[in-house]
Amino acid sequence: MKDAIPLNEAQRMVLHHAVQLGTERIDLLQALGRILSNDIRSNRDHPPCDISAMDGYAVRAADLSVVPAQLIVIADIKAGDLPTLKVEAGRCARIMTGAPIPQGTDTVIRVEDTQAIAPDKVQINVIAKAGKDIRSRAENLRTNEVILTAGTEINPGTLGILAMVKCAEVQVRCRPSIAILSSGDELEGLHDAFDVNKIPDANSYALMAQVQALGIVPTLLGIARDDLNDLREKLEQGLQYDVLLVSGGTSVGVHDFVRPTLEQLGAQMHFWRVQMRPGQPVAFGTTKHCKVFCLPGNPVSSMVCFEQLVTPALRNMMGHARIFRRILPVRLTQAVAHRPGNVEFVRVVLSRDDGGYLATPTGSQSSGVLLSMARADALLVVPSACDGLEAGVKAIVQLLDGTEFEEENRGIE
Amino acid sequence: MKDAIPLNEAQRMVLHHAVQLGTERIDLLQALGRILSNDIRSNRDHPPCDISAMDGYAVRAADLSVVPAQLIVIADIKAGDLPTLKVEAGRCARIMTGAPIPQGTDTVIRVEDTQAIAPDKVQINVIAKAGKDIRSRAENLRTNEVILTAGTEINPGTLGILAMVKCAEVQVRCRPSIAILSSGDELEGLHDAFDVNKIPDANSYALMAQVQALGIVPTLLGIARDDLNDLREKLEQGLQYDVLLVSGGTSVGVHDFVRPTLEQLGAQMHFWRVQMRPGQPVAFGTTKHCKVFCLPGNPVSSMVCFEQLVTPALRNMMGHARIFRRILPVRLTQAVAHRPGNVEFVRVVLSRDDGGYLATPTGSQSSGVLLSMARADALLVVPSACDGLEAGVKAIVQLLDGTEFEEENRGIE
Question: Domain of B38: which CATH number?
């Protein structure tokens, strides 16, 4: 168990244990980003009848064999009306977008293609084939038809559909409860007095933000000191959650109490080292109820390990089919050195190129330099077997949080 | 004002008015995704002194001219210690990751490259040059140096840095208050009794979700009926917010009360039609305090207009530099017909290709088919002057919400 295992094997082990959680019923207003746990059927036909797609006139196409044609306007139909009239030859009805098509008509002529002659007379200037600008009954949704399947992520469009079939509440996959614990005598908490010799605890907060970005509000358990009782108590508390993230405590030194204490508390540790950089010392274990990740004390290593191992686990638990970061093909602006052995994640910024994206490393890749993570748009993936990437070659990057938007407005012309 | 204006001109007009809001002080725990309104300076050197990057032994490189070399271990230094000893030739200190480098030493040898001979004696198996595996004082942050500038988006890495310099509260750009109003007699509210002849109000909820995806919780004002007093009262209420979204009410028919009522209430309307599809009838106006958008009643048109006009406006108000959707280069799997005139947004799903992404239209592009929006990964941008795109050509798409992740784990090997 001391040997480092390949990252994709570590991911498989994590996903084997981090299985999807149960379900809960929540208000539609809180449902964005959640996963449906049941199929959803339509409770209605939509549209409920043939309706107009435009503001204009409902006509009989046969009346327009010669244009311009003048028609008598016998009604004025708006959305929400229930017209009972029948439109005979030579007649038509003024009609609004979304309004029911009256009996006898088969076509809508948009208002722009007409000319009002008198209050009850209109001139139609164009011919049209039957069915034009009419939305058919049940074209969008048919009563009782399954319209969304279990496992669907609720995006804004999906949420609109759920409102359309009147699901004011929805049954969705639960989100895991998550605790975050830092460890180490050298750490200074966010609200502790300033001590020039201490290291401020950044990891708890960066991890918190990574968890928040997945839509979960974690509990911060604070800092466990290098004291067996304190550590044991805080770990015991953390193991009550679905997921426990322990920042620091992955070193192999004599001061590392985390591992034996976790084992005493009943955790079975599945791996302790992974062939990745940054982040080699990263551990994963399970109790009956809890998934525990021990993340490196270096802030960048901690964040990269979270991205590669914790994010897919959490998204899997929440029922997402899409659990891995979207990757982008890029071209490198400079060479990236690499010795075979570990998969390496290089922090890069993206820029624009004729055909797509260029990636440039953010500078120092030291795992202590959190600024480089803050500035990065993406992580360049350097495969374990690679012996370096030359400038100009194609490569792939994983997009990071906060990169869904860009400054330039491209392509809108 | 009745003529349709080009989309990029409409965007420029909207951004001219939707300027960035004021600032507020918030807790760091709530700061993810917000924009810093002030420069942030470091309150400390980080690391506070030279520290070890590894678990191992702090040694004098000069002692390792011949290896293996045996050294006397005179101390045991862990993170948080403040060693006062000086290490002389032939001696070394056991040291933990993050612990201060003791005087006299200049190199760290990782524990894997050593062998314990006795409790106070270690054999070093490798040579090393001075400075190896040592992190220099202030390598990450230097006291008083500006480390984050005003305008920076708070991503997880940034949030970690803010914790590192003990910003338990941060000054950030405000988020706009937003009201959403639907209009039309034909609409049935989410909690109204089922009526087979009515159209369920999906737009309010899809718009709500689009707003939520930007980190803002909007207020739903419900449905204004085709009654002047009701409409006037609800619009007046909506104009109290920073932004008012009116769903429906963009038609040019006689039943459209929205425009005159807005003008009576003091709104200056800047445009009423935009050269885009779906979404042509979309309006934008301003009062002294409020930005008001009238969005089409068709759910897809409404969502696409929100993406192109409201999203950049809201992100601009919140102080983001990145206000437009990230675009991806793709290759089309099938031809897309287009007549020059409007910029068109075609809902597509993405799939994978050797070099990058393929885009395939979701099927019916009727603006009533909200399911196609729910299923879409992205919007294919067809420029206004284009007279159709052939299968196989390169094109660009805008990524939609919920597409930051994908099913396959690509590149991790």
Answer: 3.90.105.10
